[in-house]
Amino acid sequence: MLKQENQDKLKINKIRHSLAHLLAAAVLEIYPEAKPTIGPVIENGFYYDFEFKSPIKEEDLEKIERKMKEILPSWEKFEEKEVSNKEAKEFFKDNQYKLELIEDLEKAKEKITFYTFGKFIDLCRGSHSDKPNKDIKDGSWKLDRVAGAYWRGDEKNKMLTRIYGLAFESKDELEKYIQNQEEAKKRDHRKLGKELDLFHIDEMVGAGLPLWHPKGALLWRIIEDFWYQKHLENDYDLVRTPHIGNRILWETSGHWGFYNKSMYPPMEAGQTLEDKQKNKKAEVSEEYLLKPMNCPFHVEIYKNNPKSYRDLPMRWAECGTVYRFEKKGELSGLTRVRGFTQDDAHIICRKDQVEDELKKVIDFTLFIYESFGFEMKDVKVYLSLRDPNDKEKYAGNDLGWKFTEEVLRKVAKEKKLDFTEEIGEAAFYGPKLDFKIKDVIGREWQCSTLQFDFNLPERFDMLFVNEKGKNERPYMLHRALFGSFERFIGLLIEHYAGAFPLWLSPVQVKILPIGENHFEYAREVFEILKTEGIRAEVDKSNESLGKKIHYAKQQKTPYLLVIGDKEVESKEITLESRTKKVGLFSIEKLLNLFQKEIKNKK
Amino acid sequence: MLKQENQDKLKINKIRHSLAHLLAAAVLEIYPEAKPTIGPVIENGFYYDFEFKSPIKEEDLEKIERKMKEILPSWEKFEEKEVSNKEAKEFFKDNQYKLELIEDLEKAKEKITFYTFGKFIDLCRGSHSDKPNKDIKDGSWKLDRVAGAYWRGDEKNKMLTRIYGLAFESKDELEKYIQNQEEAKKRDHRKLGKELDLFHIDEMVGAGLPLWHPKGALLWRIIEDFWYQKHLENDYDLVRTPHIGNRILWETSGHWGFYNKSMYPPMEAGQTLEDKQKNKKAEVSEEYLLKPMNCPFHVEIYKNNPKSYRDLPMRWAECGTVYRFEKKGELSGLTRVRGFTQDDAHIICRKDQVEDELKKVIDFTLFIYESFGFEMKDVKVYLSLRDPNDKEKYAGNDLGWKFTEEVLRKVAKEKKLDFTEEIGEAAFYGPKLDFKIKDVIGREWQCSTLQFDFNLPERFDMLFVNEKGKNERPYMLHRALFGSFERFIGLLIEHYAGAFPLWLSPVQVKILPIGENHFEYAREVFEILKTEGIRAEVDKSNESLGKKIHYAKQQKTPYLLVIGDKEVESKEITLESRTKKVGLFSIEKLLNLFQKEIKNKK
User: Fold this and answer.
1) pLDDT tens, A313-354?
2) Which residues of B touch A266 (CB under 8 A)?
3) What are the φ/ψ torsions at residue B250 (nearest 5 degrees)?
4) Three-class SS of residue B82?
5) Could you say which of A177, A514, B439, B581 has the lowest number of CB atoms within 10 Å?
6) Residues of A annotated catalytic, as ranges
7) pLDDT of residue B285
8) Burial class (CB in 10 A: 0-12, 13-18, 19+), A565
9) A214/B316 CB distance under 8 A
10) Domains present along chain A, CATH in parentheses
11) Nearest to B245 among A206, A221, A225 (CB)
C-alpha cells in the first residue's frame, strides 16, 4: 500500500519537476534577461524563483502559461549530459545564482549535470517525466500566483520573484483541488474574522498583535469562562502573574540564554531618555523582559513557601499572555502571532503521582476537543523523545528520561491515542506529547501539549520535604489544552466556518421586528431573553425583513426571531435557524429549546 | 470652630517642633560627631534627619529617648537671637547641611535666627512652646522608628538617618493613637496578603509586580466574574487588546510626549543583541512600548470601521493590565504598583447621549461600592475642573469644557453625591469626577474615575456620520469603577480585615473531620458542596480538632463544618461561623443557608 503511494508520488513529482523546467523555459523566451535560480517540487505543484529585470505581476502569468503550452508539444524527452565545472561555469557565467549552486556542487564533490529539453538547458539533478508532452495532461496544471522570496530564504539576500504552479495527474484532480481551496478560503479565519467583525490586526499597533472587537472579545470570554469552570472542576488552582520580569529571572530560567532571539528586547528601566540618546547606561540598571513563557513566575510562587509532600500535586493554571518576536514573514492571522494567551498550567508533583496526573491531563484534553466539536481524526498526536545518541544536549539524567518517556508512552497507549513517536524531537528540557490540528489549507498547528521539564526544577532548585523529612526534587509538567486562545479560536472559526454552535455564538439570537410598530414587543422579548442569559440583539434598522434576514444569516447568527402583527397579537414568535424556518413558538418553549441546545453544546 | 481647631493645631505643632529640637540636643550629647540637618513637624509627630558617623538602629532609640527625658526638665524657655550670615556660617562650619540652608536664607534675603534651649543651639525659624518643660506632658510622646532619607529628598544626595517621633497633647491621645495604629497594622493588606497566602511581591521578578497565589487569584477571578456579568447586564461590550504597541501609536496619542517618564522604556525590536552591544541601530527599527493606558487601542478598534450616529453609544470595557514605571520609593503593596489591571471602559457617544451616560456610570459606580460593602461615608468625591485663567494648557475648546463641566456638576448633584470642586485639578484632556477611598492608615487612594477626553478624539480624528450625513466628532469618556483590580483588592482586604463575606471568600467552607474514620463522609460532603458551586476544602491533617479550628479561623474562613461520629451517624453537620457555633444542620438546610447568604452578598 505504502509502496504504491510512493510510486504515485514519484510519478506526480516527475511531472511537477518537468513543469518547473517548462516554466523557466517559457519565462526565458518572454524575458530573455531574467535569471532562473531554483525550481523545486512542492505539495500540490512546483515553483521557480527568478531574478527579473523589472518585477512581473499576477496578470503576466497568463502570458507565461500560454507560452508553456506552446512549448510543451515539442518536449518529447529530456537529455542528460554530465559537464565539467569549467563548462558549467562558462555556460552560466551571467547568472550568479547558478554559479553559486555550481560552486556548492564543486565543494561537495558532486557531479554536475545539465538537462536539455527542447531548446532549454538547465542545471539539474534529474528525475523528470520520460515523455513530458505525453505525461503532462491538458488542464491538469496551471500557474497559480506570484510571491517574493529571498535567495536561499535568507533575509540578507536579494528578493527574487517566485512563480507558483499547481499540477496534478489529471484535470479532475486539479479541479477538485481548486474547488477545495475555494471552499477553504471561505472558511479562512482571517476572512471570517473580518466579516463577522471579530478582530483585526492593525499596522499602527503592530504585526501579530490582534485587537479583539466586541463580538470576538465576547467569544473569547465565553471560551475562557468555560475553561476556568472546567479547571476548577478538575481541581486546578488559579495563579496570576505579570507580563514582565527582571532580566535576572530570565537568566536564571535560561530563557535569556537559549531563547533571546525569540524574545522582545530588554527594557532598560532607570535609564532616562537623555541617557539613552547619549548611550549612557543607567546608574541603577533594572532590565525588564516581556515574558515569552509563564513558567518562571509559577516557580517563584512555588518557592515562596516551603512545600511538603502533603501539598503535592500542585496544579496551577493561568491564561497568561506571552510575547514572542516571531519573524514578520511567518506571522499568519491568529494562528501565528507575536502576542498570545497560553491556557497554561504547571503540575508540580511527586514521582508516584506522575502517571495519574498524565492520565488526568489526557482525559481533560480529549474532553476539550469533544466540547469544541473536534473529532480525534482531526487531531494528530506526536510523542517526542530524546535522541539517545546525543544525550549531552538535554537537561536531566538518564533515569529521569527513561521514567518519563516510558510513562508518557504507557499512558498514551492506555488512553488509546493514535500517536507517532519522534526520536530527537523532545525539547531539551524533557519529552512531550503534542496534539496538532490542521487548518483549512492543511497546515498542522500545535495546540495541546504536555511536556516534562527537568530544567526549571534544577535551575531554580525546586524542592519539597518528603515523607522521610528529606528534601526531594519534584516533577514538573507544563501543559496547555488550547495551546493559545488566539490559535485555538482561529482554528475554531475555520472548523465551524464561522457558524458557531449556540453556546459559543457571541450573538445567539437576532430579533427581527418587521416594522416600527413591532419594536415594543421585540424589546419585551429581548429583555426576557437577556434575563434568562440568552445573548440577543434587536435589528432596529429601516431595512426590509428580507434584508434583515439576509444580514443575520451572513453574520451566521444561530437563530432569528421574526416579529410581525401575528406574533405581537399571539405573543408568540416565528423562529428560523441558520438553515430553515422552525415554526411558531411560545417564549417558554423557545427558552426551553435554547437552554437544551446550549447545554448540549451542539 | 475652625479657629479653635487651628489654635489647637498651633499648640500641638509648637510641642512637636520643640520635641524635634530636644531630639537633636539628645542625639548630639550621645553622638557628638552626628550632624543635625532639618527637623520638621509632621502629622502625629515630628522627625529629625541626621548624618551619623556609623548608622544607628531601632534599638538605639531607647537610649536617645532616655537622654531627651533627662534634658527636658532644664528647658524652661527658648531664646531667640538674630545672627549675621558670617556668625551663622562660622558656628556651623563643620556641618555642610546647615551651611547649605544658611546659603539659601542668604539668597532669599531672609533673616537668620538661632534658638537656644539649655545648652543646645539650632538654626531655626521659630514657633516653639513657651515653656517646653511644662507643655510637654509625661507619656504624651515617644520616639517611633528609624528610616533612611535622602538629603532634601533627592536620590542623588547622601542618604541620611531619619528619626521619627510621635507626639500629642496628652498621654491618653498618644495611647489611643498607638492602639489605632496597631489595629490598622492587623488590617494592613500587605500583612494579611501574606497571612492569607493571597499574593507576594518578589525581588527576582521586580518591585511593584505582584504574583497572585491560588487564593488571591481565585478572589480576583470571583471579582472579575462579577464585574463582567454586571457589565454585560449594563449593556457594555467587551474588547481585548495587547499589552504592547508600536511607538507610533503612542506618539499619535501623545502619551509618549507627555508621559514617557512614567512609561517603561521602548523595546527596540529588530535590533539584535550584537547590534545592541555595538550600539548599532537596527536596519528596520520597530520600537514597542508597554501600554500605560488602554485607550489608544480602543480608539483603533473604533476607527476600524466607519461609524454612524445609530451605532452610538459604544460602551467598551476591558480589564486591561497596564504598566507604569513608578518610583520605587512610592510603591506600596497593592495600592501603588508598577503593573496593574484597570477595569477600564470607554464610552463613545453623541452629545445628546452624554448626560444619560454619566448618570448610568454614577449609578453603576454606587452599585459597585454597595456590592463590596463600602458606604458613601468611606468614599470622598472630587469634581476636577479646568483653571479658567490658564486655558492654553488644556485640549478642547471653551464650548466643550463649559458643556462637560456643567453636565458633570449637574449629574453629580442630581445623584446626591457629596463632592468637592477643585479648580485647576482637571486633566489637560478634560474635566473629571474622582472617587477616593481611605486605607487603614488614612491615606486616600483614587478608585473610580469618570473623565472626559477632548484629546484622543482630536489626535486620532475620531468621527461618526450624523443624521444629516455629515462627519461629527463624538464625545469620549474614560471610566473605571475599581480603578485597578490590585488597588481595589488591597483596599477590600483592609475594609474586611481579610474576613471576606461568603460570596467573595476564596475558601467558603472548611470541612474538619475529627479523625481518619470521618474522612469518607467529609469527602462526600465536599463533593456535594462542590457540585452546588460551594468552594470548600477538607483539612486532612493529623492535627487535633482544636488546632484545625484555630487554623481555619486564622485563615478567616467564613464557615467550618465539624464532622465526627455523631455527624457521620445522623448524616448531619455541626456548623460554626467565624464567631460562633451555629448548630447541627442537614446538608439541604446548609446549602440553603449558604446560597441565601451568597445571594445577599453579606
Assistant:
1) 999 999 999 999 998 889 999 999 999 999 999 999 999 999
2) 267
3) -80, -20
4) strand
5) B581
6) 295, 324, 342, 344, 346, 432, 478
7) 65
8) exposed
9) yes
10) 2-187 (3.30.980.10), 199-243+291-495 (3.30.930.10), 509-599 (3.40.50.800)
11) A206
